[in-house]
Amino acid sequence: MQVQAILYEPALFPDELYQRALLLLDPESSARIKRFYRREDACRTLIGRFLPRMLLHARGVALADMKFAATEAGKPYIASRSSASFTTTGVDPSIAYNVSHDNGLIAIVSSANTHNPPAFTIGVDVMKVRIPGRETFTSFVETVGDQLTTLERRLISSAANEQIGLERFFWMWTAKEAYTKALGLGLGFDFRRVEFDPALDVLRVDGFVPKGWKLSKFKVIHGADVYQGVVAEFVGGDDDAVVISELDPHEWLTVLNATSFIQSAIQQLT
Ligand SMILES: CC(C)(COP(=O)(O)OP(=O)(O)OC[C@H]1O[C@@H](n2cnc3c(N)ncnc32)[C@H](O)[C@@H]1OP(=O)(O)O)[C@@H](O)C(=O)NCCC(=O)NCCS
Question: Which residues form the 4'-phosphopantetheinyl transferase domain (predicted)?
């Protein structure tokens, strides 16, 4: 399993680079990107589209031969020989991946997961640790409270201080998102069914620790900005879900800067 995280700073990302990059994408991606009102939203999705393309490039696939598709619920995947109408040749073994973006971070997880093709059971979610807009910590937790379990609410309210409470909340939230994204269900899944205890690092679904799952927590710190992320992957087997702490060595995580990533991607893909 590998995670690539791209740090995006709007002021350092030239418009000319955005325009050149857009020209390389397929019509569907480029139409979706152009629909965004805010250039920052467009750039995040643009960078998110280049990430799986660079995975394919590393496997020797030419840009013109890269084909992507999405499940009915919208989970994107690399179209392979097994899918009916799309083909990306030369991807053997297949690549399982998922993308997430928030504020100044875009992340992709990729692995050789083979469970539930074609989109595979892998998901990632990243979020900037912050209290949005004009909320206070208490009002923010109240707003999202109905998506949390009783234990989760207690773990937040009993935290030694707001910073720890906020951090706990973001581990819970990114774990719930990553798990549902792994299933490919997106918003169509009740978040209260997934419970994550970030104090003891225990995942429960419908009250039980699920078997065969692996959750990997990571942090990306950029100046004053802190991002928390979780990868959820069904790895199979009969063992209870394991949780990799953000404090463990993360040789699987690389962090790059958006401008140099896109510059180099354009160069390599053309
Ligand atoms: C998947 C979803 C929960 C992600 O929400 P999020 O946490 O705000 O966003 P993230 O940045 O973590 O993830 C977005 C990425 O997840 C991927 N994604 C989209 N749908 C997905 C799904 N069903 N499962 C897993 N991943 C999905 C895409 O790569 C997407 O990137 P893009 O929008 O730039 O193409 C949400 O977009 C969703 O439920 N989408 C599917 C349903 C939908 O679109 N409903 C709208 C009409 S009801």
Answer: 122-198
